[in-house]
C-alpha cells in the first residue's frame, strides 16, 4: 500500500511539473520567429533619433529570417514610441522583404508603394 501511495504521489508530481513546464513554454511560444535577432540587429536603423540609414547586412539577414507579420501583430504602442515606423518600412524594403502596402504593423498603416522610400 505504501508503495502504491508513493507511486501515485510520484506520478502526480511528474504531471504537475510537466504541466508547469508546458505552460511556461506556451508563454515563451508567444514570441515570433526571429524577434530577438531582429531587435538586436536592426534597432539602430529604426530608432526615432538619427537619420534614415541603409541597413547593415546582419540586419537584413535577421529580417529575412523573421516572421514579420507576427511581429507586426504583436507590436505595442509602447514599442512604437521608440521606433520610427517609416524607417521600419524603409529598412524592410531595402532588405528585400517589404511590408505590404496598405497593411498594418502595430497601429501604423503601411503607405502605398509610391510613398515608400
TrEMBL record:
Gene3D superfamilies: Plant lipid-transfer and hydrophobic proteins. SUPFAM superfamilies: Bifunctional inhibitor/lipid-transfer protein/seed storage 2S albumin. Residues 1-29 form the signal peptide. CDD domains: nsLTP_like. It comes from the Eukaryota. Residues 18-105 form the Bifunctional inhibitor/plant lipid transfer protein/seed storage helical domain. InterPro entries: Bifun_inhib/LTP/seed_sf, Bifunc_inhib/LTP/seed_store, NsLTP-like. This is Bifunctional inhibitor/plant lipid transfer protein/seed storage helical domain-containing protein.
Amino acid at each position: 500500500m505504501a508503495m502504491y501511495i508513493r507511486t501515485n504521489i510520484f506520478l502526480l508530481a511528474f504531471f504537475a511539473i510537466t504541466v508547469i513546464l508546458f505552460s511556461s513554454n506556451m508563454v515563451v511560444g508567444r514570441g515570433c520567429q526571429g524577434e530577438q535577432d531582429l531587435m538586436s540587429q536592426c534597432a539602430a536603423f529604426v530608432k526615432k533619433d538619427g537619420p534614415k540609414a541603409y541597413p547593415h547586412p546582419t540586419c537584413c539577414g535577421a529580417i529575412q529570417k523573421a516572421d514579420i507579420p507576427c511581429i507586426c501583430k504583436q507590436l505595442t504602442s509602447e514599442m512604437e514610441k521608440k521606433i520610427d515606423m517609416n524607417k521600419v518600412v524603409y529598412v524592410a524594403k531595402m532588405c528585400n522583404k517589404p511590408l505590404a502596402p496598405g497593411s498594418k504593423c502595430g497601429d501604423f498603416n503601411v503607405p502605398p508603394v509610391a510613398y515608400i522610400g
